[in-house]
Each structure stands twice: as C-alpha cells, then as structure tokens.
Amino acid sequence: MATEQVKAKKNVKKQFFDVKSGLTNAKMQLYGTTIEELNGKIIKLDLTRNLRGKSLELKLRVKVENNALVGEPISLSLTGSYIRRMIRTGTDYIEDSFETESRDGKARIKPFMITRNKVSRAIRNSIRVEAKKFLDGYAKARTTKEIFGDIMSNKVQKELSLKLKKVYPLALCEIRVFEII
Questions:
Q1: Is residue 28 within 8 Å of residue 43, measured between CB atoms?
Q2: What is the DSSP string of the chain?
C-alpha cells in the first residue's frame, strides 16, 4: 500500500508557477505540483540591485487569489553587512524597536541612525524619542502596503532624516526592520 502511494507521488509532474507582487516588478516563480501546495510559502527577495546597493531583503508570503499566486509582504530588513559597512570609527549609532498600529494592522519598526560624530547620551536619547514619535504618527496614517512602498522608495527615511536634522545631523537614517505582526 505504501509503495503505491510513493509511485503515485513520483508520477505527478511539477511545474513553475508565476507569483505576482504589487511592490516589485521582479519576476518570481515557484516550483510545485499544484497552486494550492504553494499557498503559504515564503519567498525572500534581495532588492540590492534594484535599490543601487542598499541591501534590503523583502519577505513575501504567497497566497492564492482568483486561481493565481500573489505575494503579500511580511517583512523588510536591511542586511547586517550593509550596516557594518556604513558604521565608521568616531561615530555613534542609535537604534530602537517598537510596535505601532497602522490603518490595517500592527507592525514592528526598528529604525537605525548613525551620527556624524560622537555625541552625548542625551542627544542620542532625544533622537530616539523624536524618531519614535515621527514613525508612530507616520504609520497610523497609512496602510502597511503603503509603508512598505515608502520604505523601499526611501521616502520615510528622507522625511525622518530632515526631521531629526534639527536635533543633530545624521550620516545615515534607515529603517532596519519593518515587519507585520
């Protein structure tokens, strides 16, 4: 009986199925026997070439909609090698992690900032507090898909950098991790 099931599985032909994503124009394909089998799979996309050297990694969960595969974004994160490359001696880095509400769910945001010079703890704390206040308000006004798009197009980081420049000028202002909870 068991050998008959194994033979039946061997005769099933696998094929490539196209996956569409609203965020990127990347062509993605998954290998499997049926569309239903691929439902719930997670795809990792490296967006380094698309974003001119900024090493972003996008994770998508595959869902079946109208008999087609669609990639829904789960998380967006900077790679550790990119962050290590940006940190220089004689600078300080500031990072934070907090959960916030968006219009359609909860999300975890981890901002990462590098100052131009060494700064006091009070300045680092005020930068962290201002960044949290700004990102919390920004997320409440938008859906998670809009936030994913804005992070990929560097819109959020630019606005945050301009806001924090009043406290202390930054060498780098990035969103290290953005994920849906």
A1: yes
A2: -HHHHHHHHHHSPPEEEEEEESS----EEEEES-HHHHTT-EEEEE-TTTTTT--EEEEEEEEEETTEEEEEEEEEEE-HHHHHHH--TT--EEE--EEEEETTEEEEEEEEEEESS---HHHHHHHHHHHHHHHHHHHHTS-HHHHHHHHHTTHHHHHHHHHHTTTS-EEEEEEEEEEE-
Instruction: Domains for the chain: give ranges and CATH numbers.
Output: 2-77 (no CATH), 87-180 (3.30.479.30)
Alpha-carbon torsion angle 57, 58, 60, 65, nearest 10: -140
**pLDDT in 10s for each residue of the chain, 181 residues:** 555 555 556 678 888 999 988 788 778 889 988 888 888 899 998 888 777 778 889 999 999 988 888 989 999 999 988 899 989 999 999 999 999 999 999 999 999 999 999 999 999 999 999 999 999 999 999 999 999 999 988 999 999 999 999 999 999 999 999 999 9
